[in-house]
Amino acid sequence: MNAIIDREDSLRAAARALQANRPLRAEEICRDFLLDRPGCAEHLRLLAQALSRQNRLEEAEEQLRFAIELRPAQPHLHEDLGTTLALQGRAEEAVPCFEKAIELDPTLPQPHKKLGRVLAALGRGEQADQAFEEFFDRDPESGAVAVGADHLKAGRVDEAITSLREVLRGDPDNVDAMLFLALAWRQQGKRLEDAEALLRRATQAAPGHVTAWLNLGGILSERNKRQEALDAYRQAVRIEPAHAGAWSLLANCQAHLGMSREAERTFRQALKLKPDHAHTQMGLGHVLKTLGDQEGALAAYREAIRLRPAFGEVYWSMANLKVFRFRDREVDAMQAQLDGGDLGASETIHFHFALGKAFEDREDWDSAWRHYHAGNQAQRQAIYYDPAETRMKQEAIRRVFDAEFLARFEDHGDGSPDPILVLGLPRSGSTLVEQILASHSQVEGTAELPNLGRISLSIGRYRPDGVQFPEAARDLKARDWRLLGRRYMEETRRYRESDRPYFTDKLPNNFPLVGLLHLILPRARVINTLRHPLDTLLGNYKQLYGKGQNFTYDLFDLAEYYRSYHDTMAHWRTVLPGKVLDVHYEDTVLDTEAQVRRILDHCGLPFEASCLRPWETERAVKTASSEQVRQPIYTSALGKWRRYEPWLGEWKESLADILDALPPRIGEAGR
Q: For position 630, what pLDDT does the model report?
C-alpha cells in the first residue's frame, strides 16, 4: 500500500512541477522514483514531457520508446511519441504514432487533431481534413470553436465573435475560444483591454499553453506594455524551448525595448531552431543594423531574400541603410517582381520605395521620383490621416499652454535636470544632434521614448465628462505637475543603462508637448532640429516608416504638417523664451564645432572634443539615420531637394513665406 501511495504522490508532484513550468524539478522527481521502480510507464511519460519542455527532444524520444516497449497498448505513449517526433520536424515518422494511438483508442480526440496537423504539414490535405473531422466529431465544443476560427479567417469578424461568445457561455474556461475571441477583438481594433483580460485568463487556466502566452505578448505589445510582453514571451520559450516562433517574437520585443545585444542572441537562437524563416532573418538584420554591423545586416537581409524572393520589406530595409547601394542584379530582381503583377499591396509599396532609392543612387531622378511617388500614393490609401484633426489639436495645445497658464504653474514640476529632449520633424538632423550629445561623457543616448506622449494622453482619460488633453490640463493642481514629472522620470529609467547624469529623449513628434514638458520638468533641456523645409519634406517623402508618421505620404499633408509645426515652434519661442535651442542641420555640418559648443552650452555641459567626432561613438541607433551618423560628418546631403525641384512646386507655393524668410546660409546651402 505504501508503494502505491508513494507512486501516486510522486506522480502528482511531478505533474504539479510541470504545471508550474518547472521541468527540471519534474525530471528530478521522476528520476528519483525510477531509480527504485524503473518500469513505471507513467513516470517515464512524465519524464519525457519534462525533457521535451527543456528542448531535450531526443532524450524524450528515448524514454517514450522504452515506455512503449513496456506498455505497447498505452495510446497516450504513442501520442506523446508522435508529438516529440513532430517537434523534431520528423512529421512522416509521427504519422504512424498518432495512427497507432487512434487504433488503440479511437475515442481520444487529441490524436486525431495532431494527426490532422502533421498530415497538413506534409501536404496531404484530404487526409488531414478527415482527421480534423474525426476530432470535431469527438469534441463538439472544439468544432464550435473551429467554426468561429473559420469565420475569423474569412474576415467575418462579427460572426466569429458571436460564435465564440456562445462557446464561452457554455464553457467559460475554454482556452481556445478565449484565444480566438481575443484575436477577433484585436483584429477589430476594439476592446483591446478586454482582449488582454481574456488572454490573461487563458494563461491562468492553462499555464502551459504556449499560444496563449504568445498572443498575450502580442496584445501587450500593441498596448505599449512591452515590459509585460517581454515576460509573456519569456514564459512561452520556457514552456517550449524548441518553439522557433516564440524565440523570434521574444527577440522582436527585446529589440523594441532597446535590448539590442540580447535581441541578436535571441534571433540567432530562433534561427538555430528554424534557419529557413525569412522574417526571423529580417529581424536579425534589423538588430545588426541597429548595432552598426552593416555587413552582418546585409548578409541577413540577403538570406531572407534568398528564402523569399518577393520579400519587398527586406529590399526596403536594405535601402533604408541609406549609405548602401543595390547591385544591378538586385535592381533587376525588384523590377521583375513589380512587373510580375502578383504582389500584395504592402510588398508593392516596399518595392517602390526601394527602387526609388536604387534609381536615386544612379542619379536617375525622374525614375526615382516616379517610384517614390507611386509608393507614397499607395501607402496613403492604406493608412488613416486627417490633416485638419492634426491642425486643430495643435491649435488647442497652443491655446491652453499660453504665457499666462505657463506662468501660473512655473516651477511646480519635478526638479530633475536629467532629460535632454531632441525634437522637431523627422529627417531634420535630430539623430546627428543626439549622437553628438551621446558622445559626451555625462550624457546617455537612449532612444525615441514614447513616455511624454503617453503622459499627455493620460490627462483626462477617465473623466466622465469626456474632456481630454489639452483642455483637461487646465484642471490640474500644482502637485499634479510634480507627480507627472516624477512619473516621466520613473518610466524612462528602464531605458537607461549607465549612471551618466543626463540622457536624451529623441522623439521628433514631442514638439507639440514642449509646454507640458516645461511644467512637469522645468529643468529639462529642449533642442529643436531644423533643416531646409524642402529637404525635410523630401526626406520624409522618401521614407517608408514602419509605423506612425502618417502625415508623410501625401504632398499636401506634408506641407500642412510643416505649417503646423512651424506655428507651434513659433509659439514656444514666444511663451517660453530661451527654453528651446534651434539647431540647423546645415550649420551643424558646415561649422560643426560652433554648433557643438552651442548645444553643450544650452545643456549646461562642458565642451568635450569627443562631441566633434560623433561617428566614433559606439551605441545602438534604431532610427532611419543609424548608418549615416556612423559616417564622418558630410555635406553631400545639403540642398538635395534641388535634384527633385521639377516635382516640388506644390510645396514651394504652400510654404513660400517660410522659404522666403530662411537665412541665406540655409536657403543657399548645397548650391
A: 43
- Residue 638 falls inside a structural domain: yes
3-state SS string for 57-80: HHHHHHHHHHHHHHCCCCHHHHHH
Side-chain half-sphere CA neighbours of 398 within 13 A:
18
CATH of residue 493's domain is 3.40.50.300
Decide: pTM greater than 0.90: no
pLDDT digits (tens, 9 = 90+) for 157-201: 888 888 888 878 887 888 888 888 888 888 887 788 999 999 999
Report yes or no on 45 lying in a domain. Answer: no
| Rounded Cα–Cα distance for residues 593 and 303 (Å) | 42
DSSP assignment of 353-382 equals HHHHHHHHHTT-HHHHHHHHHHHHHHHHHH
Q: What is the DSSP letter of 259?
A: -
Instruction: Report the Cα–Cα distance between both ends of the chain, in Å, rounded.
Output: 96
- Rounded Cα–Cα distance for residues 91 and 122 (Å): 7
Mean of per-residue pLDDT scores for the chain: 90
Phi-psi region of 202 (alpha: psi -120 to 50; beta: other; left: phi over 0): alpha
Could you tell me if residue 611 is inside a domain?
Answer: yes
Q: What residues pair up with 502 in beta bridges, in sequence order? A: 443
* pLDDT one-digit tens code per residue, 315-336: 999 998 877 899 999 999 999 9
